[in-house]
Amino acid sequence: MENRAQFGSRAGFIFAAVGSAIGLGNIWRFPGVAYDNGGGAFFLPYLFALLTAGIPLLILEFTIGHKYRGSAPLSLARIKRGGEWIGWWQIAIAFVIATYYSVIIAWAMSYTVFSFNLKWGADTTDFLVADYLKVGDTVSFGSFVPGVLIPLILVWLIVLGIMYAGVKKGIEVAAKIMIPLLVVLFVIIVIRALTLEGAVDGLNTFFKPDWGSIMNGKVWVAAYGQIFFSLSIGFAIMVTYSSYLPKKADITNSAFITGFANSGFELLAGFGVFAALGFMAAQQGVGVNEVVQGGVLLAFSVFPSIINEMPGFQHAFGVLFFVSLTLAGLTSLISIVETYIAGVQEKFNVSRTKAVTFGGGLTALVALVFSTQNGLNLLDVADYFINQFGVALAGLFEVVFIAWFAKELKSLQAHADSVSDIKLGAWWRISLSVITPIVLGYMMFDNLRQNLIGDYGDFPREFLFKYGWTVALGAMFFGVLMTLKPWKGHSLDYSASKVDKEVV
Fold this sequence. Notes:
The protein is mainly alpha-helical.
C-alpha cells in the first residue's frame, strides 16, 4: 500500500498540464478559427475569453482537484453528492476522445515515415483518402487498414507503458521530455516557414484585422469556444492532474502559466501555418484565402503539398512537422487516458496496474474501429458530436453545479488563496458564475438549434444518429449509471486530514 501518487514538483505538474493543453488541435484549429473570425481583430475577444473563462476555469479545476484529492467523479462527489455523475460524464467523454485521438497520432507516425521519400506524391488528398486510409462507405466498417492499424498498436504500447510507470516516473518524465522537444521542433518549423517566398503575404492575411467583426456576437462565441476546447477543461483532465499536486503548490500561478503557455503555442502555430500557406499560395499564383483549410486536411493534405513545393530540405521539414504532431498528440492522449485510469482506480479500489490494464486496454480495443476503412467517417462524426454536445456541455454543467447549486466558489477561492501568491478577487467569481454560464449556454443553444434544423456534413441521418447523437447522449447516460455503484475505500465526507491518508 502506498500514499496517493504525486508529481515530483510543481514544475512537473505544469509540464504535464501544458502537455494536455497543447494538442493536435492547437496546430490546425486555432489558425483557422482566428482567420475566419476577424484575423488580427480576433485576438481581442480571444484575450478577453482567456482572462474571463480560460484561466478562471483552470483555477477552478486545479483547486477542486487539489482540495478534494481525487479524480473528477470523487472530487465532485465530495463537493456535493449530486455532482458525481458530472465527473463520470466527463470521464466517458475523455474515453471517447482517446479512442479516435490515438488514431490521428497513428496517422502522424505514418506520415513521419512517408516524409523520408515524400510517398504522398502530387495529389496529397487522394493519397490520404484513397491510398492511405482506403476510405469506404458509411454502411459497413470494412476491413482493417494495415498502414493505420500497425502504428495505432505502437501508439497504445507507448501510452500504456507510460501509464503503467505511474504519475511521477511515467507521466511527469514523459511530459518533461516531450514538451520541450515539441517546442524546439516547432520553432524550427516556424523559422523555416518564415524564410519561404510568400510567407509575409501569409502572415498579413492571418493578422490583418477586420475590426468590424468585433461587433459580431458569433466572433466572441468563437473566441470562448476556442479557449474552452484548447485548454482541456471540462473533461476531467485538470481536476485529475491537480489532485496529484503537492499540498503547498501555487494553484493560481500554475493556471496562469498553463493558460498563457497554451496561447503562446497557438500563436506560434498561427505563424507557422500561415507562413507556409503564404508560400503555397505564391507557388500556385493564387491568393492565400484560396489555399486555407482546417482540420485533418490541413495537416495531412495541405502541409504535404507545401512540403512538395519547398525549394529544399523537403524531407527534413516533413519529418520535423509530423514528429511534432506525434509529440503533441501523445502528450494530450496521456493526460486524457489518466482521467479514467484514476476514476476506475478510485471507484473500484483497485491497483493502478489493474486500472491501466482494464481502462487503457478497453480504450485500445475500441480504437481499433477507427483503423478500418470506415474510420475517417466514424472519427469525423464522433469528434463533432462529443465536442459539441459533450465537452462544452459538461463544462457548462460543472460550472453551474459548483457556482449555483453547491455554492462553493467562495470556499474554493479561499483554498486557492491559501496556497497561491496571486489572490483571487471578485473577477474570478463573476467570470464563473455569470460570464461563462451565459456564453457557454448560448453556445449550447445555438449548436442544438443548428443540428436540429440541419444535419452535420453530408452524412446520412441514420449514421449521424448511430455514431454521433448516440455517442454523445451515451456518455451522459454512463455518468448517471456509474453513480449507482458505491465507492470502495473512499469517503465522500470531505476531511482534509482523512483524504490525505487515503490510499489510491
